[in-house]
Specification:
The complex is a heterodimer of chains A (about 180) and B (about 280).
Chain A (H helix, E strand, L loop, with lengths): L2 H19 L1 H4 L12 H12 L2 H18 L7 H17 L6 H25 L7 H33 L4 H6 L1
Helix pairs in contact in A: 1-3, 3-4, 3-5, 3-6, 3-7, 4-5, 5-6, 6-7
Chain B lengths: L1 H11 L8 H32 L4 H35 L4 H7 L1 E12 L6 E4 L12 E3 L4 E8 L4 E5 L13 E5 L7 E7 L4 E7 L11 E4 L11 E10 L6 E7 L8 E7 L11
Antiparallel strand pairs in B: 1-2, 1-12, 2-5, 3-4, 3-12, 4-5, 6-7, 6-9, 7-8, 8-11, 9-10, 10-11
Classes of the chains: A mainly alpha (about 180), B alpha+beta (about 280).
Protein name (chain A): Rod shape-determining protein MreD
Chain lengths: ~180, ~280
């Protein structure tokens, strides 16, 4: 049954590729300035709720770092830090292997909101943006939240099925 | 943990010379797979776009034919002027550096992935330092300037969009700009207003020829950072600056920043692939 884990990582990488190289060409142009899909993050949240917070944190940090390196514009680290941190905190609060759909959707909404707010905070601290938080909220934090919510709804059933098949082995997960 | 990340962000902030090899390795490998994924995606989306625009194609063709005829006429004038210009440069003993500054060539590039982060918008393209791309070079679309190369590996490079330009940013830079057809007009573009979606051109001398709405702003080439003649946008509004000595213009960028297809890296100097007779 271990192949499911490898498969999960591979799947996350494929989603990472799709959100950068495929989605921008298919989303309507008017949405572009209001949306950063970051679908990998939604999947990472699933992992930290249904598996373990440490697994979520490690995956979040690794894929965040990948995002930081590949789209290196200003600095390395913001995505890695925020994705790992948010996945850990939400895993700490909501980690339930049998969490129903409404709980999971709440986690996605909260996670999306925390992620974007933390990114906004980091870029403000380093003087990269001069906008107010109100502006950011309307311009992209809320549209992001809705987009990720819809994505979470779509992937909920298949992912849940896979996680239910995966035996829970908390001891092994602790080591990660 | 948090301290570690803050340290990492601090260290990688601002001007860095080159990338370390793990970064280059990751970037190049990911870029390769992105290119594989991206090719069918652009093809399919291009196909749907073509279908939706089918009815306007005939009209467009008509207007293009007119434009081509016009351009052919202008090309003759242009050739005459360039030969004359070259002759004059020789007569006036231009140094190599001056010649290099006025020369530029466009390196064609495909977009392979887009980072839609509002705070830190970047785009990856499929040309790198092996193709002569270096950090700090300007990148344009067909319509106008879109950004500046922020990192370059052997086979790919990342563009930091002009929309992240800001006065306070540690990554800030200034573009010296001028208006086409108005001799002596000069201003500096060094910030982008995200609320109004306009570039700000500051330090315009009010005694020089007056800027008017719909004037086309291009890079002036003075300062030697960017070559002359890259289109930035159109003037929308001119207002006196805070202290009244200079004027500030709001410029609407001509590039769209949403429809990513093909871009051109502007490389100063003479095109190595071209023959000797072209300047």
């Amino acid at each position: 049954m271990t192949w499911r884990k490898q498969f999960l990582v591979l799947l996350l990488f494929v989603i990472f590729l799709i959100e950068g190289s495929v989605l921008p060409w298919f989303l309507p142009d008017a949405w572009m300035p209001h949306l950063m899909p970051n679908l990998v993050f939604v999947c990472v949240l699933f992992v930290s709720v249904y598996r373990h917070r440490y697994a979520g944190m490690v995956l979040g940090a690794v894929f965040g770092m990948l995002h930081d390196v590949v789209y290196y514009g200003a600095m390395l680290g913001p995505y890695s830090f925020t994705m790992g941190f948010t996945a850990y905190v939400l895993g700490l609060i909501f980690q339930l292997p049998k969490a129903p759909l409404p709980v999971m959707l709440t986690v996605v909404m909260l996670g999306s909101f925390i992620l974007d707010s933390m990114l906004f905070g980091i870029y403000t601290v380093f003087n990269f943006n001069e906008q107010t938080y109100d502006w950011a909220l309307i311009q992209y934090i809320i549209p992001d939240l809705l987009f990720r919510l819809v994505f979470a709804l779509i992937i909920y059933v298949p992912i849940r099925r896979q996680f239910d098949k995966m035996p829970l082995r908390p001891k092994k997960d602790e080591k990660e | 943990m948090i301290v570690l990340f803050v340290a990492l962000m601090g260290v990688t902030l601002g001007d860095r010379i080159g990338l370390t090899w793990p970064e280059k390795f990751v970037k190049d490998t990911v870029a390769f797979t992105q290119r594989v994924v991206n090719k069918p995606a652009t093809a399919v989306s291009g196909f749907f776009e073509d279908i939706s625009e089918l009815d306007s194609v005939y009209k467009e063709n008509e207007s293009y034919r007119m434009e081509v005829a016009e351009l052919k006429r202008q090309l003759i004038d242009y050739r005459e002027l360039t030969t004359k210009n070259k002759q004059l440069q020789q007569d006036l003993n231009f140094t190599d550096l001056q010649k290099r500054n006025s020369n530029k060539y466009y390196r064609f590039a495909h977009v392979i992935s887009v980072n839609e982060d509002v705070n830190n918008p970047t785009v990856n393209i499929d040309v790198g330092s092996k193709d002569g791309v270096e950090v700090g070079q300007a990148v344009t679309s067909i319509d106008g300037m879109v950004g500046v190369i922020s990192t370059a590996t052997d086979y790919t490079s990342t563009i930091q969009l002009i929309t992240s330009l800001s006065l306070t940013s540690p990554d800030g830079y200034a573009i010296s700009a001028t208006v086409t057809g108005k001799e002596g007009s000069f201003g500096i573009v060094e910030s982008y207003d995200k609320n109004k979606k306009r570039l700000l051109m500051t330090g315009i001398d009010p005694n020089k020829p007056k800027l008017e709405p719909y004037d086309v702003v291009v890079t002036s080439g003075s300062g030697g950072v960017f070559p002359a003649g890259i289109v930035l946008g159109e003037v929308m509004q001119v207002t006196p600056s805070e202290f009244g000595l200079t004027e500030t213009a709001l410029i609407k960028p001509t590039a769209s920043f949403v429809e990513w297809k093909d871009l051109f890296v502007v490389i100063p100097g003479v095109d190595p692939n071209a023959g000797d007779d072209t300047p």
